[in-house]
Amino acid sequence: TFDAAAPAAIAPHRTVVADVCGRVAAAYPRLGYCQGLDYVVAFALRAACLDADVATRLVAALFDDLGDDLAGLFEPGLPALKRRCRELKLLLDARCPRVAAQLKRYNLHVDLFAAAWFQTLFVYVDVLAIDVLDRAWTVLFLERSFKIFHRLALALFVTLERDLDACRAPHEALEVLSRLTSAEAHERRRKLRQKAATAQASSPRRPPPVLLPPPPPPGGAGGHQQHSGPPEAPAEGDDESVGVPPTGMTVEKTSPSSSPRGSPPPPPPS
Predict the structure, then answer these.
(1) Are 265 and 256 in contact (CB under 8 A)?
(2) Distance from C-alpha of 140 to C-alpha of 207, rounded to nearest angstrom
(3) Gyration radius of the chain's alpha carbons
(4) Is residue 52 very low, low, confident or very high in pLDDT (cuts 50, 70, 90)?
(5) What is the pTM of this model?
(6) Which long-range contacts does 219-225 make (Cβ < 8 Å, 24+ apart)?
(7) With 80 as the cut, is the pLDDT of residue 259 above it?
(8) Rounded to a whole number, what is the largest CA-CA distance in the chain?
């Protein structure tokens, strides 16, 4: 069932994907034949740089860590898949009531779309970028919980909330929801990436800013003013510049009563 909708980097390696699927089936005999396990194996193979042994260990780690939560997606009767879809429906009612009302209005069941999402661990969703899937799988390995995929499903429905509100017929709502897993969505995402890469390559590169050295302090590096000639006479009336009184002014002795505030008085004469 590994078709053209799978990641382009893995498509030429169908034989390796089939080999890893056979190893997983031999290691876990209770698994049944399901469309979706090949997507999980293909994404693990991509993460393992096309190493079949490493990819097999990754998938085995998922089954060992998640147990029935993951194995039940592929067992006969699909018990875990049905449970996941019911959980998502309850989450939609609580978190996204508008989306839930629209789906109920047109008699659209969540499992029509979410079954493929959960059974492929969201590899089947074309609108999700590869780095988003990488992050989701990383959280899956760290938390060992299926919560991350419920969060992704809620986020996808929230992005379509306005479009679903604008629908006036069931076929329009189906068309809106099919954007998440359509080949057109994958092609549109590829064109947007190509356009962004072209714009970045064609944009002129600005030269790095030239950092000018700070101006020297007045009077040289030491901060002292240098004079090349004789000192200038103080301006008339400027009695705070130097301690020499201006011309024509006499200086009287300071009496204790006229001493500045806060300064001690002079000692009495002996």
Answers:
(1) yes
(2) 43
(3) 39
(4) very high
(5) 0.62
(6) none
(7) no
(8) 118
